[in-house]
Design brief:
The protein is mainly alpha-helical and 103 residues long. 83% of the residues lie in helices and 0% in strands.
Length: 103
C-alpha cells in the first residue's frame, strides 16, 4: 500500500511538471501570436517589436538552460521566476500595443 502511494505521488509530480511545461510553451506561443498581430495591425513599431522579441528570446533561452541543467524540468523557483517574467512581458505587449504609436 505504501508503495502505491509513493508511485501515485511520483506520477502526480511528473504530470504537474509536464503540465507546467505545456503551459509555459503555450503561453510563449500566445505571446508570439500577440506580437505578430500587433505587427500586422501596425500597433507595434519596429523598435517595440524588436524589444518584445528580445525579451521573449531571453525567457526562452533561460528556460532551455534551466531545463538542461535539471534533466528537462524546471524547479519550483525557476517556474515562479519564468511566470513573473512572462507576466511582465505580457504587460509590456499590452502597453506597447495600446500606446498610440504606430508603424
Amino acid at each position: 500500500m505504501k508503495l502505491f502511494f509513493t508511485h501515485a505521488l511520483l506520477a502526480a509530480a511528473l504530470l504537474s511538471s509536464t503540465a507546467f511545461a505545456a503551459e509555459v510553451d503555450q503561453r510563449e506561443a500566445n505571446q508570439q501570436a500577440r506580437i505578430a498581430q500587433g505587427v500586422k495591425s501596425g500597433q507595434l513599431t519596429r523598435g517595440e517589436t524588436a524589444h518584445l522579441e528580445n525579451r521573449a528570446a531571453h525567457i526562452s533561452n533561460e528556460i532551455a538552460r534551466d531545463r538542461a541543467a535539471n534533466g528537462g524540468h524546471l524547479t519550483a523557483a525557476e517556474r515562479a521566476k519564468v511566470n513573473g517574467q512572462q507576466d511582465r512581458t505580457s504587460n509590456a505587449i499590452y502597453r506597447d500595443k495600446h500606446d498610440g504609436r504606430t508603424r
